[in-house]
Specification:
It is a single chain. By secondary structure, the chain is mainly alpha-helical. The protein contains two helices and no strands. It has helices spanning 10-27, 33-68.
Length: 69
Amino acid sequence: MATPSTKPKADGRVSKYLREVRGEMRKVTWPTRKELIAYTGVVLFITAVIALFIGVVDLIIANLVRLTT
């Protein structure tokens, strides 16, 4: 005789997952608008500095390769 499955159905697992995600999202401390603008500025600044650094290093390496050929 077959025994009933103890696994929850897929739709039950999905709804449980979504309920748990919602519960966790309520615990998140969201930044204020002022903090968000400040953090965005920091990220943009650091990105620009790194891009500039990579560009300068690339230019130096390209000139060194050009000199050796």
